[in-house]
Amino acid sequence: MARLDRLTEVAAQSLHRALGLTDWEASRIRELLGREPNHFEIRVFSLLWSEHCGYKHSARLLKRLPSAGKRVLQGPGENAGVLDLGDGTAVAFKVESHNHPSAVEPFQGAATGIGGILRDIIAMGARPVALLDGLWFGEPDFHFWQAVAGIGHYGNCVGVPTVGGQTVFDPAYASNCLVNAMCVGLLDAGRLHSAKASGPGRVVVLYGATTGRDGIGGASVLASAELSEDDADKRPSVQVGDPFTGKKLIEVSLELVESGLVESLQDCGAAGLASSLSEMASAGTGIDVHLDRVPLREDGMEPWEIMISESQERMVAVVRPQMLDAVRDVCRRWELPCTPIGEVTGSGVLRAFHGGATVGEIPAQLLTDECPRYEVEQREEARSVRRLDPPPFEVRDVIEQYDHLVGSRTVRRPGLDAAVLRLRPSLRGLAVSLQGPAPGETNGLRAGVQATLGAARNVACSGGEPIGLTDCLNFGNPEKPEIAHELAQAIEGISIAAEALGIPVVSGNVSLYNDADGVSIPPTPVVGCVGLVTDVRRVPGRWRRGDAVLLAMSPDGSLAAEAALIRFLWKAAPHLSLSHDVGSSGVHGALAEATAWSGGLEADVEIPTEYDSRRGAAILACSPDRVARLGSRGFVRIGEVR
Amino acid sequence: MAMPRPRIGVVTYPGSQDDRDALWALAALDAEAVPVWHEKRDLSRLDAVVLPGGFSYGDYLRCGAIARFSPATAAVCEFAEAGGLVLGICNGFQILCEAGLLPGALLRNETLRFVCRDARLRVERNLLPFTSRCTAGQLLVIPVKHGDGRYVPPPGLDPAQVVLRYVDNPNGSIDGIAGVCNEAGNVMGLMPHPEHAVDPLLGSDHGALILASLVDSARRHALAAA
User: Fold this and answer.
1) Among A16, A57, A98, A404, which one carries the catalytic annotation?
2) What is the mean pLDDT of residues A567-589?
3) A66-80, A110-124, A247-261, A379-393: lowest mean pLDDT where?
4) What is the maximum alpha-carbon separation in chain B?
5) Which of A2, A56, A120, A404 sits CB 3.0–4.6 Å from A20 for a disulfide?
6) Residue A219 per-residue DSSP state
7) Which residues in chain B touch residue A410, judged by CB atoms under 8 angstroms apart?
């Protein structure tokens, strides 16, 4: 684990262990470099070869996820996945975790989680149009409300609506909460930006906030190790968000992209410049970076600190030299520092200079492609089944703390299944959802299937044809064989469900080491789904007096039947006054939610005996004369709105 | 003869968020909506000005406290003093109070939490350039979204300056005040967001009554100037 032994002097310990690298990894670095790495280089390796940046324990498993499809413009591997929506537009989306920072400091942890996922979408050249949050906490305590306030603090101040997500309370997350954030952005399909650097001689420009010592080693210290009782010591590893600068960063980045001033953009997030520069340089080009040119917010920073600082609200752009003045003008207009800090070379090497001296020199591919990817040892170990007793909680108290209207696209507001955003000026729309497994689920495979089908069913209930998925895999320590098994099984579950639906997983994130004091969280794959709505004027809303109430069910528990139900739901949606997924709260819970959503208008219903709570289902309503248009199969009439 | 499209400026501070939505809504209501950058000092060719919602300069200090010193705000003050029509929405309302163009102040919501929901409002004055399309006592549904929206009037505020009142007060505003105007009636501020309520598809089109009233009044100004 990345921890110094306090009773032994630092100088007497091997640095690589304190930084979270194993002895084997340290010797592998020596072998790849053909020499001993210096202090700067071992720091950079330790971050890029962390689970958070390098997916050491998950990369091999993630290959299982289906990622191809006719709409896919960009699959996994970039800052976000991109799907073609037709009409010349495309959607970029991704979900990411900020669990450990939020466990240590919930307000800033959650806030910077929002900042980070926004920058991933911006790096693709897309304008963020929606945020969704998944929150797993022990109970609705002060810690939880601080996280909600942190999300609001950032999201509300950057002008991106927060339109959905899920909140789950379960004592299993009391010491290791989960904060997952998804962002959806829109871009011209022809203007897709890649994060790779191109062409020697291009200038590397850092713009946005200044650089300080905040978040040093966040990715390795926080995200790639278990939590324990002395976590207060880790608070300096949590970054601090500045949404005002974040807002300016969005506007500058989009102006640069839209006026064609930049070749590529890269978010400066986990592992800071070390990560963004090695990503950019890994396509075979190299980068020379002059760290003494980076504008600093505090004195006396070491070169390695500048290289790995996770100070927020920074981006890196690759710019043609003749465009540099125009780039500076845009940044000046928005009052953001903008500094050329290096050049693209043809060397394939990431070289760092400070005060005229070379401080580090690493072939970029060693940091990315050569990161060890372990075959994890798996062993099945069933967990005991848990029954949850969720505390009384009004989800509206969360929703109302977020601006869900800015942008004037929100046709269906958050609160029931998926929100719908209009793709102005057309009448088409996007339905977006974020779902985890049924609360209390302990089986990895079932958790993956449930999250995927749940996210797609939510989108379908809002009238959207599911077109793509993103996943955030929240698990315990993968070096424990039983956790590795859960992870592999959940990936299998997501994969088979996505295959049944015929849609790809185009982006995602892995959050491992969600263990507190040796206990791992239950398997928690969280899946985001994006769906296309043909006509936002015909999105289901509230049921009306006299409407027939129907129950749509999957005829058997098979994946094919579940996929057929989802297809039925989005096809039926234009005829319905209301459509609501029967989620984990069961059919009675779903009816109560539909009643509340419809302004308290109640329905008289009788639940049929063939209803099986283990299968996917949805409550539908429409005027009685329209029932025939839905066909004759896939649903039963269960009552009427009073 | 075709009616002239009035030119209505929408000020963009670096932290403004609803400037695009305000421009879009005004254009949909047949105004020529003109973006005005916060460093601009000259508003002479405009028939009205809107200060939109957002977080002007981050508002880490006090909402609108920095924005009152910006060049565009100084120009708005001159514009208003010359009788020009100025509408401040949410953060724009806060800025107008900070700049002294409107009476009172906006404090932290009573719940200490940000609130985003539809609010029901009652029109208290309908003979203003901003409410001429409304009837007195009319109920409007327009969303609010703010953390600092609790209006506190100065002692002895003329009741005639209260333009809108909440039916179900979302923030603890004194006397449920949601919108006020200056004594001359050419400057108005409100916390609800009419620009988010101009299309029934997005929940309500009651906000269009307020913005269309402004467009009507600005058009009269344009005609008089022509």
Assistant:
1) A98
2) 93
3) A379-393
4) 53
5) A2
6) I
7) 202-203
Instruction: State yes or no: is A52 an active-site residue.
Output: yes
Identify the CATH number of the domain in which residue A452 sits: 3.30.1330.10
Note the pTM of the prediction, 2 decimals.
0.94
Burial of A299 (0-12, 13-18, 19+ CB in 10 A): exposed
Decide if A571 is inside a domain: yes
In angstroms, what separates the C-alpha of A170 from chain B's closest C-alpha? Answer: 25
Q: For chain B, list the domains and their CATH numbers.
A: 7-225 (3.40.50.880)
Pairing of strands B7-12, B48-51: parallel
**Cβ atoms within 10 Å, residue B85:** 25
Q: Clarify whether residues A128 and A214 are in a common domain.
A: no
Q: Would the CB atoms of A406 and B145 count as touching at under 8 Å?
A: yes
* A339 pLDDT more than 70: yes
Measured between alpha carbons, how far is A507 from A472 in angstroms, rounded to an integer? 9
Q: What is the pLDDT of residue A52?
A: 83
Residues ≥6 apart with Cβ < 8 Å to A428: A85, A87, A422, A532, A533, A534, A535, A536
Which of A398, A403, A404, A539 to mutate: most B Cβ within 10 Å?
Answer: A403
Distance, CA of A493 to CA of A515 (rounded, Å) = 22
Q: Is A270 left (phi over 0), alpha (psi -120 to 50) or beta?
A: beta
Assign B148 to helix, strand or coil.
Answer: coil
Nearest CA in chain A to B39: A333
| Mean pLDDT, rounded, for A158-170 | 95
ipTM for this prediction? 0.95
Q: pLDDT category, A195, cuts 50, 70, 90? A: low
